[in-house]
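By way of example, we now present a protein record of this kind:
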Amino acid sequence: MKRDYFISVAMATYNGEKYIKEQLESILLQLENQDEVIVSDDGSTDHTLKIIESLNDQRIKILKGPRNGVKQNFAHALSFCKGKYIFLSDQDDIWLENKVKHVLTCFEEKKCDCITHNCDVVNSNHSEVLIESFFDYRKSTPGILSNIYKNKYLGCCMAFKNEMLKSILPIPNSIEMHDQWIGLICEKFGTSIFLDKKLIHYRRHDDNVSQMKHYPLLKMIKNRVVLIQQFIKRR
């Protein structure tokens, strides 16, 4: 049955020519004609934009990013999203078949405001599974204190209701990453669930912006202090 609403996919790009075509194709296959993919490009100097344009798909809208890092590039994309539900997307993963269907069904059944689903972690050409379940690896659960202590929110696996944008934006530049901020804000002002279905291949390679290792202790403490301060201030 055709949906009576549309969804938005917010994608931040920067020099993503290696994987962007495969990622966008995996997304577009699951979208309806009224849906949109908002791509904020932060000044790519490779063929990223040419590859996106070559897809010639009217659902893709390309924006000039703020050139102020990945957090603000995502914030810029989000500020243009008009769909009932907003899906976050990196430029280098692969959406598995029926990701959109599973997430939308979960929204309708659980009446929640934010969903983070599971994924596996694969190598650069997705020929090898490095981690079978990100949830098991990260011990993923909702909870504000739990996710301040150790972030389990993974942006590329997140979707949330458009109404949450008024609380999420602006994303403070002083915090470490956007996904933890979005997840915590959705918990503060709404309800958030973790859906244990693996719906993307989360690709790890030498060019990843995010890291899967711990920062030095002092930096971790400083990051959390700043996060808590900004979190408490957000009304």
Notes: Residues 217-233 form the longest helix (17 residues).
